[in-house]
């Protein structure tokens, strides 16, 4: 089996490519469906609106972390993964913000983060952070890291970030009724599950713990 420059089997790149392709195709379909649909739209207190608002913020941090890694990581595998995450999640932010505009809703709500989830705010972490989100100190530590520590810290932070995002998607799927939102959420989960596998394999190749 061929390997990349870090010695990581290329199997993870195939898993990631399939997941990203599926997610992008779903995203296009959701965007078109949004423009063509005349069905009733979610209200401001709906799970769909809460998800669009909170996941946009959650995604924004993933883009931030990924751009740090893309510019400073030592491994081409990590840089490629970081680029894919940044591009995909920025595109999804655009889709979710367009939903809110089409629904005539504010991009931010007046309810606490995660209040739309089935378990409410029970999964909110210290500092009012959504599940898996890094602290400011962790982001600063990533920025100041050098060498392979950039790769390791990014993979560890993004692994936790994705697991938190998947938890949010599961909460949305338990409550949502809008087929467009459900379709995109399922695409997110598929892509991030593939990326979780890739991150775990990268950490293993660097002999680094997953947390």
Largest sheet: none
Low-confidence spans: none
Structural class: mainly alpha
Q: Mean pLDDT, rounded to whole units?
A: 87
Helical residues, percent: 55-70%
Total number of helical segments?
Answer: 6
Transmembrane segments: 12-36
Protein name: DUF305 domain-containing protein
Domain DUF305: 48-202
InterPro entries: DUF305_CopM-like, Ferritin-like
Structural commentary:
- It comes from Luedemannella flava.
- InterPro entries: DUF305_CopM-like, Ferritin-like.
- Keywords: Membrane, Transmembrane, Transmembrane helix.
- Residues 48-202 form the DUF305 domain.
- Pfam families: DUF305.
- This protein has 211 residues and is mostly helical.
- The protein has one domain (11-205): Ferritin, CATH 1.20.1260.10.
- 68% of the residues lie in helices and 0% in strands.
- The protein is built from six helices and no strands.
- The protein has helices at 11-36, 47-72, 76-102, 136-144, 148-175, 179-205.
- The longest helix is centred in the last third of the chain and has 28 residues, at 148-175.
- The chain is elongated.
- The mean pLDDT is 87.
Sum this structure up briefly.
This protein has one domain (11-205): Ferritin, core subunit, four-helix bundle (Ferritin), CATH 1.20.1260.10.
Identify the notable features of this structure and list them briefly.
211 residues, mainly alpha, Ferritin, 6 helices, 68% helix
Helix-strand layout with pairing:
Layout: H1 11-36, H2 47-72, H3 76-102, H4 136-144, H5 148-175, H6 179-205
